């Protein structure tokens, strides 16, 4: 099984360029530029000695924080070493014979399905419709499927699935005895997270499994902390029965406190709402690229004249972006960039214009 290349590999790039990691402006990983919430950082430092003990194998404190945040029973929650562990664990417990993936989407779903021996059918998102998931997906999903996986907003397209279509898909899946895994790892960045999330349907729909993570919004990818939510207690029990103990370390187990950090949450929301608009508007003015209107904290764009390897060209300015050439249904003319702080975004626009118009 092949490894998927992801964004964020600044180690490899720094070595290749012979520079320090800190010199790279990393637009390839979609992480909140506000950084680790200050109060959480202080708590980590204060509790440094907690690594002398094993973490609580039931992760009571963490699960309680998630339950309180979303007003859901603790019994609906499973936690993992990043969203990635939850994705693999759900799929290996469910053992779907036939699954549906949209294309393009996050690469680890496919790896987890291949590992579980699932037959995969792809629903290709159309470039001419800005990679939207459309109502015609309902015609493809039937009782021959065991699992459909959707990502909302989708990575790398940054497109949201229209709420009414999403609800129809969920209902249609239940009617056909199909599970729906819905990855909401980036939902906190969208304009109206409460309106877009499908959490309200969790209690009633036992075929729904929602994935979330603290990784992106709270800027802690190195800590590895994600969770799954479902009212399907049988599925959760099977996942928990198969899980290795202590995959979440003592520091990650403390991270539930960030969910209550309203000052950080408000500041992050202010940043994303203003920078997404500003960055998108500047990119739109560049006539050598087509930019897809973003909903998450990252932007997909297409190079219209493909003369340059843009990733290599920008690396000369120590700017790292994500080439989308290894995504199914995209090619080497597509790139994904994170929305960062104002100054970094301005540096990016300037460097991109230089490469495209002067290079
Ligand atoms: C859509 C999506 N889900 C899940 C993940 C994995 O998150 P984590 O780092 O918490 O495992 C990623 C990582 O890029 C992602 O893009």
TrEMBL record:
Residues covered by the Aminotransferase class I/classII large domain: 23-352
InterPro entries per the UniProt record, alphabetical: Aminotransferase_I/II_large, CobD
Organism this protein belongs to: Crassaminicella indica
EC number: 4.1.1.81
Enzyme class: lyase
Protein name, as recorded: Threonine-phosphate decarboxylase CobD
Gene: cobD
Pfam families for this protein: Aminotran_1_2 (PF00155)
Example of a GO MF term: threonine-phosphate decarboxylase activity
CC cofactor: pyridoxal 5'-phosphate
């Amino acid at each position: 099984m092949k490894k998927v290349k992801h964004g964020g590999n600044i180690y490899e790039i720094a070595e290749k360029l012979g520079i320090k990691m800190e010199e790279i402006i990393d637009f390839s990983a979609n992480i909140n530029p506000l950084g680790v919430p200050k109060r959480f950082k202080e708590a980590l430092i204060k509790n440094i000695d907690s690594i002398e003990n094993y973490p609580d194998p039931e992760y009571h404190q963490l699960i309680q924080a998630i339950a309180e945040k979303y007003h859901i029973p603790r019994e609906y929650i499973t936690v993992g070493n990043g969203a990635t562990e939850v994705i693999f664990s759900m799929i290996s417990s469910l053992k779907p014979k036939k699954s549906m993936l949209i294309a393009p989407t996050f690469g680890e779903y496919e790896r987890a399905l291949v590992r579980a021996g699932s037959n995969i059918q792809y629903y290709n998102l159309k470039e001419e419709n800005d990679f939207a998931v459309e109502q015609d997906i309902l015609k493809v999903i039937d009782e021959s499927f065991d699992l459909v996986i959707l990502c909302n907003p989708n990575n790398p397209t940054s497109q949201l699935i229209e709420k009414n279509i999403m609800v129809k898909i969920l209902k249609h899946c239940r009617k056909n005895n199909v599970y729906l895994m819905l990855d909401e790892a980036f939902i906190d960045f969208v304009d109206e997270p409460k309106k877009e999330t499908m959490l309200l349907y969790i209690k009633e729909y036992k075929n729904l499994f929602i994935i979330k993570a603290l990784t992106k919004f709270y800027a802690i990818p190195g800590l590895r902390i994600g969770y799954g939510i479902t009212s399907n207690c049988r599925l959760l029990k099977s996942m928990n029965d198969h899980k290795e103990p202590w995959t979440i370390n003592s520091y990650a187990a403390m991270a539930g406190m960030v969910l209550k950090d309203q000052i950080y949450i408000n500041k992050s929301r202010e940043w994303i709402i203003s920078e997404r608009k500003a960055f998108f508007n500047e990119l739109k003015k560049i006539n050598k690229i087509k930019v897809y209107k973003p909903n998450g904290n990252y932007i997909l764009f297409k190079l219209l004249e493909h003369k340059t390897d843009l990733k290599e060209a920008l690396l000369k300015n120590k700017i790292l972006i994500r080439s989308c050439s290894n995504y199914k249904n995209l090619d080497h003319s597509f790139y994904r960039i994170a929305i960062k702080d104002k100054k970094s975004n301005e540096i990016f626009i300037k460097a991109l214009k230089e490469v495209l118009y002067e290079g």
